[in-house]
Fold GTP cyclohydrolase 1 type 2 homolog.
Amino acid sequence: MSPRLREVIDHLDAAYPPRLAESWDAVGLVCGDPDEPAEKVLVCVDVTDSVVDQALADGAQLIVAHHPLLMRGATTVAANTPKGRILHRLIRAECGLFAAHTNADKARRGVSDALADALGLLDTVPLAPEPVDALDKWVVMVPEGNAEQVSEAMFQAGAGSLGDYRNCQWSVVGTGQFLPVDGAAPAIGAIGALTRVDEQRIEMVAPHRIREPVLAALRAAHPYEEPAFDVFEQAGVHSDIGLGRVGRLPEQMTFAEFVAHAGRVLPRAEWPIRGAGDPAGRIETVAVCGGAGDSLIGAATASGADVYLTGDLRHHIVDESLRDGAPSLVDAGHWGTEFPWCATVADILTEIGCRATIFHEPTDPFTVVAGPKERP
């Protein structure tokens, strides 16, 4: 039985969770009916008219793209606009459109993994790792007799979960004291009287994103007018996700040899791969980032990489970075560093019975390049 679009979306979202996408990004389903079949899929980097031509000629029911068609704000999708024209053609042909962008940049089996694999890198780790879910640590002081009700309320709000475990907490009993003054309405003790109470110190974690619900639950269940509690933002414990990758070559080579190696194994558009660095420099540790990656030059430098390969490197940034101790730099193009991912997506789609093809023609906008300049 042919997979429905809904199944394809679920499978892609499992591989590239939407929560990993940057806040400014626009990932997921752009058009299409989740209940319709999506067996024939075309995978690409950019959604262009040529991509749509091939999709419709092949009878594709879905296009999976890396770059979102509607990432920047649009006030119209009229058919006489470039983006609107594409959407109208797809909708008329009952062909859906799905995008996995920065979520596919960060997740494993993502864009930079495919790039690193194409270069033959081993033992890769994220170049800019980040935690899967930022955690708060909650510390709450509560009278012993009320500890269970407060804990349970916080659990119900989503606190106390660690992996496959729920209702996780740590506690110890101590002595709390307070002095109610005029205007207070103490649940224990009296105005002007120093009060000491056997209290339980409860500690548990909760995702930062549910801080407000956890706080509301704590206040509602706590017997005190002014509960004593602390919230600590935990330092990020690096996971296996994040932008870019850094790994090692099976054998050392010179920088000139590495640039030539990249030229052989990576797809490229009309303009050549270019490098900045000492041609005789030794290369073993390699950092990469698919797409426009000059923002990670600092991370590549901190990683101890001998070279950093990405796309869209700019003149002044390269010049200043090399002066500041950055590794050798290679610009292999935006499309060229992201295209290897298309094969990964095609493999992921075959896992649920899709027939996936890849749009191989470069969608890099620079298509006319001057030949080598004759020297006088």
